Amino acid sequence: MQTLEALQSKIKSVEDLRAVVRTMKTLAMVNIRQYEKARIALTDYNETIELGLQALLRDRYFSEMPFKVFPSSQKQNQGLVGVILFGSDRGLCGQFNEQIVTYALEQLNARQVHHERRQIATVGSRLITYLETAKQPIENHFSLPSSVAGTNQLVQELLLTIEKWRNRHFPQFISAIGSEPIEEIHSPLEQILLFYNRSISTTNYQPVTLQLLPLDINWLHQLQQRPWNSHSLPTQTMSWDRLFPLFIRQYLFVSLYQATVESMASENASRLAAMQAAEKNIEERLTDLNADYRSSRQNSITAELLDIVAGFEALNQP
Questions:
Q1: From 3.40.1380.10, 3.40.630.10, 3.80.10.10, 1.20.1250.20, which CATH number describes the 23-225+237-275 domain?
Q2: Longest Cα–Cα distance in the chain
Q3: Residues 119 and 81: beta-carbon distance below 8 Å
Q4: Which of 29, 230, 313, 316 is deepest in the core (most CB within 10 A)?
Q5: Number of neighbouring beta carbons within 10 Å of residue 316
Q6: pLDDT tens track for 142-167
């Protein structure tokens, strides 16, 4: 049976651990709040970009100059696929990183993207171990910012990496179409995919996939045919061929920014759930230790009383 001193030491250690867990839980809740605010702001920003694209596409539609997304006749499932995975740099977030890696590999297999066609960039050092275990080569690695304020720098680095991928493999994902047809270029870089966790509640999240490039032609057609909710029709002072790529760059920026914010919000949601489970286990452990301590202390007091009574009786014997 453990001594009272040993039980007291264990109780003190568990109480210290409970204080750490409560601190981590509080920090996770604070971080979730700031990422929620950033997500709301991004929603408004994204709606503004879609309105701009809608105005441009309607202008192109009524001018009877349709747009096309390149390439249209390129054979699929032959070129490289750029993959950007969003994970975490810190631990204590449950199976957050393992789940997104497992989901990404399943999606790539379902899309018939074999190992030799994958070009992977990771955001978060905790992903590296799982990818190396799955024998997935990592070409680029990025660290996550400590707050929303540093997200802009990360997104700029990701955009620069995507531009390097495009220049290296000479892709032509999208082009402004005039009257002359564009000569087809067989590019080895077929598409770019984002895999990240999206927060759905304070403690829940789900993995999602976003095809960043090439642009979804159905989405562009939907924007083009969406009713314009105003009597004032939009006008433009810049040429369509110059303005449309600028909006696409903004779309890429906000998509990467949103993926980063969603992933970091999900990371803190996972950490909050893990800390809540840990706090529950710690409370149960403390209850057991305190019960053992009280029992041991009572047994010790009883033994001391019995020793005193036995000694008194021994002294009073004739």
A1: 3.40.1380.10
A2: 126
A3: yes
A4: 29
A5: 7
A6: 999 888 888 999 999 999 999 888 87
